[in-house]
Amino acid sequence: MKPNLGFATKEEEKPSLLGMLVNPGKQYALIRQTPLVWAPLTLMMVIFAVLVGFKADFYLNHPYLSDEWIRLTMSAPVLDAQSLKPLFIAASVAAAWLAYLSALLLSTGIAWLTIRLFSRIVQFRSLFSFHLHLSVLYALSLALNVLGVAGFGLDPRIPVTSLAGIIPASGVLKGLLSAIEVFTIWALVLYAGGIREIAGLSKRQAWLISLLFFLADLLLNVILAAS
What span is annotated as the signal peptide, if there is one (predicted)? Predict the structure, then answer.
């Protein structure tokens, strides 16, 4: 049997990362029937490693942040900037992997418990697979941000597709505007549709859970901006 890398095949149709972008309704049913985990997870880890690695490299060479990097390397006289760069990139990738896996497990656990409150029973694996496939939106968002930094010299601290990239702001307001972007809105809509299909919720219940996750994301960004 050929390994499935997260894309549908003609022999045995399975949920697809790409399909979540072009035909999400079909993916909901496929995830409910065949909740793939390991193949798409491996693919997403590779994608995030590449994107985060490139972003970290551009981050170090960006004019907005070069002074910060110089101050950091001056605090370690034994090593120069070039010696520290591979270590910084590797640490960035490792941190991104840890954050990604933690977010998947935490969001799946919260969703599973919330669904139980509505007297619905759904497999944890199915929910995890759904969150995993939906995360392709965040990978696409990261890819566009890397492109914006590399190709146009944009500030890597501001998401290209967010309101913060259009409306000048600072502090808490900047954190809030950074969280309101094209892909979070897209994820909000897809999450409501997917959780309804996979968990058998009503439209109102599905949108309530989706909005709660969206508001939690906004709150987290505000807290990080304020700290």
Answer: none
